[in-house]
Design a protein that fits this description.
elongated; 19 helices
């Protein structure tokens, strides 16, 4: 073998070695940016699909571990259907009760759910290692080597690309959790304000400084936040009676209360003692818990949206979905802010509109949850695209300016976005819990609050008041000493 042939043979061996999994490199195998975006979207679909399968399997195992055999499952379908409907109603009532011995704070809920999501990412890392050891990336490279669309030029390029995208998912999840932490800070502050206002109003009724029918005169002398809260509370309680005869569940759950207590109207009965802060905190927690946990529907929607991304890029269209999701998120936040501002303005002035009881969609649309899901999907997608520019060595090598911009936006945008989300969701929960879009669950929450109050009144006598005392040191300084003297049972508790 001559020197030239030996040199050529060595160069070929080195090139083959570089293409293999034994050499680390970061070659730019794409000519247009949309070609890399197409590969990235396909990998995200595969990783999120594995995440969804892992979540479904984990939830199924958890349900099986907590399930018990029930002989009623063997009963005829008709009887079982009736029992299922009754059981769901009773279960909902129990969930809506203010005191839960195993209720976690929002911080514990966030840590618990975040730990689970990061565990899933660790599971994906294990699968990638197994796939690499089984020469899976080499098989993919051989299968698509002759593709007419730009794809990684070696099995190791596939491995590097998938690892970079997996790390981008990790950073996106980390930034999403960090943003939720800021949201929880705002949520807890909002609940404190509700608590302080509710306590002041009930104290005013007890001291006779607030007179039924003259709440406006008292509210005009109070601070701005309390003034708006008092107006909204008055119109919410009086507006509830507008559903009488229009909504079956209202007639079943709340209209009978008026007859039981011998009051002339529901608002007259509720006004002196109703713990609106407790009611709003229940609804706020309901939305926040849905935001904290990424549901299966959210993963499915992410798979579908990134499928559209891959199809668009496969068609050779160079479109920036980073800008698209930023626009969607900004538009969603803007529309929700406009909606809540309009509804709060109407609520403070007693402007209600009522649907007929047959229009069940209006009471089951769960506007707060749908808005939270939209914010969740758009924010997670935007976080991923920003993280893909921050956590990828390829991005820093070939597109330095975009990598720097993505890092700055991701780091500085987390607290601002989290705080804005907390404010917008709080306002949305307030309008949908007290306005014309009140849901069936809201009516059941009010019914359970009334049941708890009546039970305490039966044990402790008149004047119980049903004061709202949250845990986690969020207002225990407002505890009324007179309650201890009366030896009342513990007040309802909503853990924030």
């Amino acid at each position: 073998m001559g020197p030239e042939v030996a040199v050529h043979h060595n160069e070929s061996a080195i090139e083959e070695f570089r293409k293999g999994s034994g050499h680390v490199h970061a070659n730019k195998w794409w000519d247009e940016h949309y070609e890399y975006d197409h590969f990235q979207a396909c990998v995200v679909i595969a990783l999120v699909l594995l995440t969804l399968l892992f979540d479904l399997s984990l939830h199924k195992l958890r349900d099986l571990s907590e399930a018990s055999f029930d002989l009623s499952q063997l009963e005829p379908h008709g009887k079982q259907h009736h029992k299922d409907k009754h059981a769901k109603k009773e279960k909902l009532r129990k969930e809506m009760r203010a005191h839960h011995p195993d209720h976690q704070t929002l911080w514990k809920e966030l840590v618990s759910k975040a730990t689970g999501e990061f565990t899933v990412l660790g599971f994906l890392a294990c699968l990638l290692w197994v796939f690499k050891e089984a020469d899976g990336f080499a098989m993919i490279y051989d299968a698509f080597e002759d593709s007419d669309f730009a794809l990684p030029d070696s099995d190791h390029a596939y491995l590097e690309g998938v690892e970079a995208i997996h790390m981008a998912l990790f950073v996106a999840m980390l930034s999403y959790v960090s943003g939720l932490a800021c949201t929880i800070v705002v949520a807890r502050w909002t609940m404190r304000q509700w608590l302080a206002c509710d306590t002041a109003i009930k104290k005013g009724f007890k001291d006779k400084t607030v007179i039924r029918g003259k709440e406006y005169e008292w509210a005009q002398q109070q601070p701005r936040f309390l003034r708006h809260f008092a107006r909204m509370r008055t119109h919410f309680l009086t507006g509830l009676e507008g559903w009488k005869g229009r909504w079956d569940i209202y007639d079943e759950e709340l209209d009978t209360v008026v007859q039981d207590v011998g009051s002339s109207c529901l608002s007259e009965f509720l006004c002196p003692w109703f713990p609106l802060a407790e009611y709003l905190a229940m609804n706020y927690r309901y939305v926040m818990e849905d935001m904290i946990e990424i549901k299966e529907q959210t993963w499915i929607f992410i798979i579908l949206t990134f499928g559209v991304h891959a199809a668009v890029h496969r068609a050779g269209i160079d479109f920036s979905f980073k800008l698209f999701w930023g626009l969607v998120l900004s538009t969603a936040m803007g529309l929700v802010w406009i909606w809540t501002t309009w509804r709060l303005y109407a609520l403070e002035r007693g402007r209600h509109f009522y649907y007929n009881q047959n229009n069940l969609c209006a009471h089951r649309c769960k506007l707060s949850l749908w808005a939270a899901r939209l914010v969740q999907v758009s924010s997670f997608s935007l976080n991923f695209y920003l993280a893909s520019g921050m956590a990828s060595r390829t991005a820093w090598k070939f597109d330095y300016d975009e990598a720097v911009a993505s890092t700055v936006l991701l780091v500085l945008g987390i607290p601002a976005f989290g705080a804005l989300t907390g404010y917008v969701l709080g306002a949305l929960v307030l309008t949908n819990s007290c306005g014309s879009f009140i849901t069936e669950k809201n009516i059941l929450r009010i019914a359970v609050i009334i049941e708890n109050w009546k039970a305490r009144e039966g044990d402790a006598g008149a004047g119980g008041g049903g004061d709202f005392v949250p845990e986690d040191n969020l207002g225990q300084e407002t505890r009324n000493d007179e309650l201890a003297k009366k030896r009342q049972p513990p007040s309802p508790t909503v853990v924030l």
